[in-house]
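ESCALATION

Customer reports they have been waiting on this structure for their group meeting. Please prioritize. Original submission:
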Amino acid sequence: MEDLKNYKKVWQDQEYTDNQLDSDTITKMIHRRSSSIVKWIFYISVLEFAVLTLINIFAKTDWDELKDMGLYHFIIGISIITYIVPLLFIYLFYKNYKSISVTNNTKELIQSILKTRNTVKYYIYTILSIYAFAILYGFSVAIQAPEYLDIIANYGDNGQLIVWGIVVLFTFLFLGIILLVYLLLYGILLKRLQANYKELLSN
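Update from on-call: job pushed to the front of the queue and completed.
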């Protein structure tokens, strides 16, 4: 009878050890997957910044016309912002990657995943907000130029309302396209991070 009790205790201890090993193995796998995903988020943000920089370098800008329209200083300012903000988030993405790479336990891994997901969301919201502000403010200034006032006059008494409606519609379409691109670039990776997060909680 005593032998049976000892055997049962050994079997229970072995079962607990196997379960613990399985849990640790799963956590390590999730850690590797999550670290790889965050690394790709960092790489994509760097690539995105490089592409936009090349576009700005090769794009032709009529600075004299911008001065005449009163947009010269605004364009300079918004250009600086569109460089500083992505660089700031690239730095944050890099910090997230380094943080998740050295994470030692499940709690820290969960926190790193949540932090990364929030950083990506803030990045997308910030970039979309900058684009929306740049378009709407830029148009509100440009619309005061004589050539644009003539165009508005062609639409009759409701010309300004019609033109503003067109601009707002264009802005929504433009932002929708940008959002779609971001969902394709970052959305898939965020979904994988979300899956890892749920798996950690259930593990």
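Sent to customer with the following note: Confidence is low (pLDDT under 50) at residues 3-21.
Escalation resolved.
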